[in-house]
Design a protein that fits this description.
- The protein is mostly helical and about 350 residues long.
- The protein has two domains: about 210 residues, HUPs (Rossmann fold, 3-Layer(aba) Sandwich), CATH 3.40.50.620; about 90 residues, Orthogonal Bundle (Tyrosyl-Transfer RNA Synthetase), CATH 1.10.240.10.
- About 55% of the residues lie in helices and about 5% in strands.
- It is built from 14 helices and five strands.
- The strands form two sheets. A three-stranded parallel sheet has the order 1-2-3. Strands 4-5 form a two-stranded parallel ribbon.
- Helix 3 crosses helix 13, helix 7 packs across helix 8 and helix 11 crosses helix 13.
- It starts with 6 loop residues before the first strand and ends in a 10-residue tail after the last helix.
- The protein binds adenosine monophosphate and tryptophan (TRP).
- Tryptophan (TRP) binds next to strand 1 and helix 7.
Length: about 350
């Protein structure tokens, strides 16, 4: 089997509208990587149902994430854009991986602990075993690199452990040990209400996050209301590191503007937040509005969007199927071993 050397897989859940953290931590990086790698980008609906999803809106949200990929600048002809549940090999390989991964490995996953909280007896089994499905998403394509936000680093380490254990247990070098690509200035975008908490779809406060679909007025308003401290802006990175809300806004500015945080500090350090927030509001809306306009346009052309999803499915299966067949063979399953007469 041909072994790729520069193949990317990454996934985004259709579990709610996309926010600035998804854009800066993941999708914006996908756009620049598409020129250097062979890319598979996947809307991970099987992951989304680890928590309750309303069946009446899941398909719509799945199309919206696909549209957001394209609207952000990912070329659907050059890359494979597809929906996870349409490629059955992901769930099949995830089962094998749940027999490779150890309970102790999964017990260490901090995202599970955060999401389950005090409710750990009552969350789905899928929420616990989810990282084995994520490992399958990546390894079923023999992907070598995985661009993600920093919150996914631990899941990537688990993926590497699974690949290594599979290769060792069965004395086969089938799976690559994939490298995380945690890129850009905003690797972990924080809540606008609390600079120590990640910006997330599940935060109850709307003012904690900027959505890709927010209007210009909304974006400007949310940034104006973002929590800060009474001091002027920090004038060194050192100083900013002790002030999480200020650092968050500075890194968001840098990431949106393709510059770096130190440069932003050299322009705004010592100044009042009010002017900086005005400029950041303008910058964010000028970058995000064209994307949300394009998402709306794509969402009104379902025939086009669905044609992308169908061709993505075919391309994805053509790569995933031979890998799963190889896994069956390595494990000793009867599967393809029935001789034809
Ligand atoms: P999810 O919405 O959980 O499927 O996340 C999709 C991608 O966005 C993953 O690569 C995450 O690491 C990334 N991501 C989600 N939230 C943030 C955040 N607050 N900051 C940076 N990246 C994020
Ligand atoms: N677990 C990721 C998240 O919640 C989404 C995801 C699923 C993913 N499968 C993946 C990311 C494979 C990268 C590669 O953000």
């Amino acid at each position: 089997m041909e072994k790729p050397t520069n193949r990317i897989l990454s996934g985004v859940q259709p579990s709610g509208d996309l926010h600035l953290g998804n854009y800066l931590g993941a999708i914006k990086n996908f756009v620049s990587l598409q020129h250097k790698y062979e890319c598979f980008f996947c809307v991970v609906d099987l992951h989304a149902i680890t928590v309750w999803q309303d069946p009446a809106t899941l398909a719509q949200k799945t199309r919206e994430v696909t549209a957001a990929f394209i609207a952000s600048g990912i070329d659907p002809k050059k890359n494979t854009l597809f929906v996870q549940s349409q490629v059955p090999q992901h769930a099949q390989l995830a089962w094998m991986f749940s027999c490779i991964a150890r309970m102790g490995w999964l017990n260490r996953m901090t995202q599970f602990k955060d999401k389950a909280g005090k409710n750990s007896e009552n969350v789905s089994v899928g929420l616990f075993s989810y990282p084995t499905l994520m490992a399958a998403d990546i390894l079923i394509y023999l992907a070598t690199h995985v661009p993600v936000g920093e919150d996914q680093k631990q899941h990537l380490e688990l993926t590497r452990d699974i690949a290594q254990k599979f290769n060792n247990d069965f004395k086969h070098e089938l799976f690559p040990i994939p490298e995380p690509l945690i890129l850009g200035e905003a690797k972990r975008v924080m809540s606008l209400r609390d600079g120590t908490k990640k910006m997330s779809k599940s935060d109850p406060s709307d003012y904690s996050r900027i959505m890709l679909t927010d209007s210009k007025e909304n974006i400007v308003q949310k940034i104006k209301k973002a929590k800060t401290d009474p001091l002027p802006l920090p004038d060194s990175l050192e100083d900013a590191k002790a002030r999480p809300e200020a650092l968050n806004l500075l890194t968001i500015f840098a990431a949106l503007n393709d510059s770096d945080t130190e440069e932003v500090i050299s322009n705004y350090g010592g100044k009042e937040f009010s002017q900086f927030k005005n400029d950041l509001g303008e910058l964010a809306s000028s970058k995000l509005s064209p994307i949300s306009d394009e998402v709306n346009k794509l969402m009104s052309d379902k025939v086009y969007l669905d044609s992308i999803i169908v061709s993505g499915k075919e391309k994805a299966i053509s790569v995933a199927k031979p890998v799963l067949d190889k896994v069956f063979e390595i494990l000793g399953f009867l599967h393809n071993n029935i001789p034809k007469n």
